[in-house]
């Protein structure tokens, strides 16, 4: 009998609940008649902006995450209570010392090209792809020394030290399992798979008409009998915000997540009977809006300058006037959603409303004086190209930082150009961005501040090129500390250091909105929300 042993991680009652969920492997109490009644149809979703690739093993870019988990699978999925449930792994076992994780893989799964899925794919994906090339993989799997494959349906992870946080990182979005037979011996960054994905998920990649749409068709050999229910998913690229809103209003599209429909329009559309709005489905990601600085060169090599900028920002104003009330002011380098884990500490230099006099006094004391025109520094600010709200944030910052003598020029480019400029070329002074802090700081926060995360060419890591030996020590200690109180103390010290040095200024904890047609059912059935597989989604007839 397969085992699901989580005793080292969870209370016994929760263990029983999770184990039952895993061993049930998403068994659904739906009759074949009901499945037949709900099957068929084409769901149209908005991909905004257009994905730079379909390589979730290389980039965690949001638009990639929206499409790729319909194609690729992970070892696990997560229910709405964040409990792990089976996907490519039908069960798993964790040793008493927490240093061995054994995944029992699902039998009869095939890749979309017909090749069998085996434990060799798991080993290759983790050790040769995610640990080396994924933005978060090197941290997530840092403790994995090797993976044994005693047979085709067993993958044994051998850990240097226990890593309980890793259990939250096996979704198709976070850790996609990729086909060894299509990547082995190739340059992973340049392989054709990047734009012609082959997965084991419920939908098969068919066509990408650049600038127009991505088409995915039903996988007839999907392991879950009777699923997926939809015949097709079409991800439409609609650059203009008003056109996206009109398409949703007219019923041309069924689904828009991650602010694809601007909040200003959501306020109106949520009153329509045929349109639904939800904030569900984002519990695993903890998104944080922020400013990244290049701390290696003037003017943002100055700690006083970075502190002054944080003081001059009216976080509540942005939430109220740009995101129409959806969000919460940042108060630390880490999200307040870590509070139940004992890992969150509010810190200095994070006012919810602007304190311009304090910011000016700080700059004056640091000898950063204004010229005859009142200008203390000039810079270009690069805006994440994910929608009109980010342009408005840029416009707000241009005005508010102008009040303390920082003159900004706004730059808004397409996604590939922006990614290359910030993460490959380091050709920026400061940028507006957002990062997923995810369910544990080892997975979501460490990549932002660790010296070892200065990985040129890898998106969404330490582009500030910030390096602090004590921070590195704390990140290392926090990743392996099992005692909750000690771990909380480690991250409290870390947050206070980062609040003082501010290589990144967090702005607000984001609250994403999903807008959908009421005809579309079961689109949010896991904690991954928009990043889910959509194998159970259907159009009500």
Automatic annotation (TrEMBL):
InterPro entries, per database record: Peptide/Ni-bd (IPR030678), SBP_5 (IPR039424), SBP_5_dom (IPR000914)
Keywords: Signal
Solute-binding protein family domain sequence ranges: 84-450
One GO MF term: peptide transmembrane transporter activity
Coiled-coil region: none
GO CC list: ATP-binding cassette (ABC) transporter complex; outer membrane-bounded periplasmic space
Gene3D superfamilies with a match to the protein in the record: Dipeptide-binding Protein, Domain 3, Periplasmic binding protein-like II
Keyword Signal recorded: yes
Gene Ontology BP terms: peptide transport
Pfam families documented for this protein: SBP_bac_5
Residues annotated as signal peptide: 1-36
Family, as annotated: Belongs to the bacterial solute-binding protein 5 family.
Protein name: Oligopeptide-binding protein AppA
Chain's gene name: appA_2
């Amino acid at each position: 009998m397969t085992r699901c042993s989580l005793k080292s991680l969870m209370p016994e009652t929760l263990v029983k609940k999770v184990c039952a969920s895993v061993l049930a492997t998403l068994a659904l109490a739906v009759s074949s008649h009901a499945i037949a009644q709900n099957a068929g149809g084409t769901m149209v979703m908005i991909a905004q902006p257009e994905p730079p690739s379909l390589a979730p093993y290389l980039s965690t870019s949001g638009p990639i995450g929206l499409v790729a988990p319909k194609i690729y699978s992970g070892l696990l999925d997560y229910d709405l209570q964040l409990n792990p449930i089976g996907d490519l792994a039908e069960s798993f076992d964790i040793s008493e010392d927490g240093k061995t994780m054994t995944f029992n893989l699902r039998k009869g799964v095939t890749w979309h090209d017909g090749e069998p899925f085996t434990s060799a794919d798991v080993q290759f994906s983790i050790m040769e792809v995610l640990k080396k090339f994924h933005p978060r993989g090197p941290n997530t799997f840092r403790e994995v020394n090797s993976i044994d494959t005693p047979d085709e349906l067993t993958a044994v992870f051998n850990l240097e030290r226990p890593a309980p946080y890793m259990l939250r990182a096996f979704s198709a979005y976070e850790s996609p399992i990729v086909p060894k037979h299509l990547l082995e011996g190739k340059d992973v960054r340049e392989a054709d798979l990047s734009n012609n994905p082959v997965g084991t998920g419920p939908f098969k990649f068919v066509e990408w008409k650049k600038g127009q749409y991505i088409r995915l068709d039903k996988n007839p050999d999907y392991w879950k009998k009777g699923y997926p229910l939809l015949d097709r998913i079409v991800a439409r690229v609609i650059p203009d915000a008003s056109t996206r809103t009109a398409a949703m209003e007219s019923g041309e599209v069924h689904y828009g997540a991650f602010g694809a429909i601007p909040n200003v329009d959501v306020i109106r559309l949520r009153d329509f009977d045929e349109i639904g709005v939800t904030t569900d489905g984002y519990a695993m990601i903890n998104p944080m809006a922020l400013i990244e600085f290049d701390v290696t060169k003037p003017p943002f090599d100055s700690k006083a300058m970075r502190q002054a900028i944080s003081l001059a920002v009216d976080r509540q104003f942005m939430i109220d006037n740009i995101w129409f009330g959806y969000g919460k002011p940042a108060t630390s380098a880490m999200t307040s959603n870590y509070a139940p884990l004992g890992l969150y500490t509010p810190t200095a230099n994070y006012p919810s409303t602007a304190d311009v006099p304090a910011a000016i006094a700080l700059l004056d004391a640091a000898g950063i004086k204004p010229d005859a025109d009142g200008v203390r520094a000039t810079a270009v600010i690069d805006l994440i190209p994910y929608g009109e709200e980010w342009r408005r944030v840029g416009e707000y910052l241009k005005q508010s930082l102008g009040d303390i003598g920082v003159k900004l020029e706004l730059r808004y480019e397409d996604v590939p150009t922006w990614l290359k400029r910030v993460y490959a070329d380091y050709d920026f002074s400061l940028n507006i961005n957002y990062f997923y802090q995810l369910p544990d700081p080892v997975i979501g926060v460490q990549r932002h501040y660790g010296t070892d995360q200065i990985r040129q060419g890898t998106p969404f890591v330490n582009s500030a090129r910030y390096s602090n030996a004590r921070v590195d020590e704390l990140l290392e200690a926090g990743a392996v500390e099992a005692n909750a109180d000690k771990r909380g103390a480690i991250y409290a010290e870390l947050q206070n250091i980062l609040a003082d040095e501010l290589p990144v200024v967090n702005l607000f904890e984001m609250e994403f909105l999903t807008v959908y047609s009421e005809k579309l059912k079961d689109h949010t059935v896991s904690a991954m929300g928009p990043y889910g597989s959509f194998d159970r989604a259907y159009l009500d007839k």
